[in-house]
């Protein structure tokens, strides 16, 4: 049921010089499924990441944070399994994540702290670490220069399609590559990042700057989507910059900084939106744009209230312009002094609510026309200030219930 | 699909001396449906209410607040329509609510400010006030001493069954009656009150005390339930105390105050829980009890995060003990310094999570057994303090999606 989600052709996916990827089957949860992925990063690659703020953050997230703090610039490998989140697993979970790093390190002749581990799948079940360790030599043997598509497959859970975005951009006279992958498709309300996004580039970016950029890029991409409001235990977004293009950007004063930042944001935003397009059971892709807010916090409160309302989401599923539900969500979003008389709402080009009430010129047929589209823009003007922000979400269907009632089966 | 919701027999519903009720058909939205209810309250009745905090609060809510402020102790009538919420309707909506009060006042020979209006149904559509005004004489003609059951019918929207709770309690040597009605069954996450609860008693309660009690009773009943997290535009909870029993309580020092308060809380809590039992599409009644919290706010953050998670709710629907989803919800509930190592979780008597991880003794078969029950207790110990609080909610089914995709059809 993915909404306008197109997979690029293999020739449109550019390998990133300095990054090799290998994918294999480890039988983590199901047989005959590519579920184990290894990234090898060239020496000198800068790596930065942002991670979930969920207090029950998974064991691999804790290990990632420790290794990034220890190894700093020296991260040389990523290892990712699907089928099991290794979350809610306590000390044995940490031991399993560390054992995975140890095994990768031995195979690649690096230190365990140079490996970042990632897991996705069911929570509260022990990670079958022996099966992962046993399959790692196959993943390492499969390492090759452009296996992004295979990796996008290898990290899927309830995703129906693999998610890859790839661009080449001329920066500072160099051809610079940006390629990334992501996965959803439920428990998605990233708070700092999403499970899982990986973005590689052969631009060179100084580690301190990349650390700042990882946060900024996440805030403009993964931190602006929601499927079900459930912030995952495993959200992780990683940028790896190998420097192999010859472009090296060390600070914001660099002539190519703005274009580089924009390229990273563009690729990450597209990866994030692909998650929404492939959201569990989604039939509609909804853009919620809040204008006239007094602050970013206000804009996001309203956008997320709309994006999380089961009543709003089921109305979209039904193509029913029951738009009072959107007003109700604005009203309970938590802006205590909101003057509803200043609120206006449009559905694409249709002006639905005017100064807090139904626009006298609004015709239900016009609302109906827009609601039937697969892509819909909800635009709100709060009439309080100059801040605009946008969140991407989806509808709520029978299929969502089916998928999440059956997920472990 | 109501969960263990039993309608009392007519002989178990006690009329409240001093309160007459009349119900009729006005054709607000559908023909042949009792959709208009009038309460007449005896002179001297104390009335207090609490209302939604939704900033898009409906026109009748605004009028209720104004009339309670003006008329104080002198409220003599309530008028309630279903089929249309008169919310998001701007100035014409206020005019319609006022016109309804005017018409009731004329028929009952009282002032318009002595009437409280209530509406429930679809938002953002004009109230067909002419049809309501035309039908009011029939409702007034139907006024009788014990029509609570008919009124419970007359305020239903997507409710499958009418909700009435009635008790007689010996207080101060008097037989005191408490009878109330409520309705749900979607857009339910009361923030101060719910749409709609009415509780009548023939106890006499001083107006100032009743005002305090309305808030306290709501906080211990309607403000502890959630169905879909959508706080309605129309939530209203009203207590009317006629004094006809001869018992008169004017302050908290009265010998019968504690028992009176408890009787009000008991009836209101049962009315609130009936809404959850008849929640849209519900197949399970879930009690979420959070112990060991540092504050009420913390306990409620955790309880509502669990109660609102679509992933948790679909797992209950499926009877699937995918209980890591509950840990994830605890983790993102917003307690920034939560030490997950102190968290324990039980499903009824089954100890699932121990010190932040899977209890080594937990057997999936035990979780499965509890998940299959129609009533389930989720008990969390946060290990942070001594505060306990409880929220009541339900599962999330295909039927919820169907109902809310079709609600206006």
UniProtKB/TrEMBL annotation, chains A, B:
The active site is at 194 (nucleophile). Keywords: Acyltransferase, Amino-acid biosynthesis, Arginine biosynthesis, Autocatalytic cleavage, Cytoplasm, Multifunctional enzyme, Transferase. It is found in: Cytoplasm. Pathway: Amino-acid biosynthesis; L-arginine biosynthesis; N(2)-acetyl-L-ornithine from L-glutamate: step 1/4; Amino-acid biosynthesis; L-arginine biosynthesis; L-ornithine and N-acetyl-L-glutamate from L-glutamate and N(2)-acetyl-L-ornithine (cyclic): step 1/1. Catalyzes two activities which are involved in the cyclic version of arginine biosynthesis: the synthesis of N-acetylglutamate from glutamate and acetyl-CoA as the acetyl donor, and of ornithine by transacetylation between N(2)-acetylornithine and glutamate. Heterotetramer of two alpha and two beta chains. NCBIfam families: ArgJ (TIGR00120), PRK05388.1 (NF003802). This is Arginine biosynthesis bifunctional protein ArgJ.
């Amino acid at each position: 049921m993915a909404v306008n989600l197109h997979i690029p052709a293999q020739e449109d996916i550019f390998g990133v010089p300095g990054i090799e990827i290998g994918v294999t089957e480890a039988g983590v949860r199901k047989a005959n499924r590519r579920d184990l992925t290894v990234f090898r990063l060239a020496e000198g690659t800068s790596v930065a990441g942002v991670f979930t703020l969920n207090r029950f953050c998974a064991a691999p997230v804790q290990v990632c944070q420790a290794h990034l703090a220890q190894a700093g610039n020296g991260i040389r490998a990523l290892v990712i399994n699907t089928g099991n989140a290794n979350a809610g697993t306590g000390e044995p979970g940490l031991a399993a994540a560390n054992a995975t790093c140890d095994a990768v390190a031995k195979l690649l002749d690096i230190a365990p702290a140079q490996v970042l581990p990632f897991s996705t799948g069911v929570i509260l079940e022990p990670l079958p670490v022996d099966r992962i360790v046993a399959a790692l030599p196959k993943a390492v043997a499969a390492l090759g220069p452009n296996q992004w598509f295979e990796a996008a497959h290898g990290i899927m859970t309830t995703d129906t399609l693999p998610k890859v975005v790839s661009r080449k951009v001329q920066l500072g006279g160099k051809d610079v590559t940006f390629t990334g992958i992501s996965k959803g498709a439920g428990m998605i309300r990233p708070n700092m990042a999403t499970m899982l996004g990986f973005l590689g580039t052969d631009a060179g970016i100084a580690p301190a700057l990349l650390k700042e950029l990882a946060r900024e890029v996440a805030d403009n991409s993964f931190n602006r989507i929601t499927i079900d409001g459930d912030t995952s235990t495993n959200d992780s977004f990683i940028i790896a910059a190998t420097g192999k293009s010859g472009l090296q950007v060390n600070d914001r004063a660099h002539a190519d900084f703005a274009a580089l930042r924009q390229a990273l944001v563009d690729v990450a935003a597209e990866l994030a939106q692909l998650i929404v397009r492939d959201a569990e059971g989604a039939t509609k892709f909804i853009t919620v744009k809040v204008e006239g807010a007094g602050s970013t916090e206000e804009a996001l409160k309203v956008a997320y209230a709309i994006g999380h309302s089961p009543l709003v989401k089921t109305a979209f599923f039904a193509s029913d312009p029951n738009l009072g539900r959107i007003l109700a969500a604005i009203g309970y979003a938590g802006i205590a002094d909101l003057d509803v008389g200043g609120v206006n709402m449009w559905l694409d080009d249709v002006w639905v609510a005017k100064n807090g009430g139904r626009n006298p010129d609004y015709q239900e047929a016009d609302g109906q026309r827009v609601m039937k589209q697969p892509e819909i823009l909800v635009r709100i003007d709060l009439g309080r200030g100059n801040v605009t922000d946008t969140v991407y979400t989806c509808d709520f269907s029978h299929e969502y219930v089916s998928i999440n009632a059956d997920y472990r089966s």
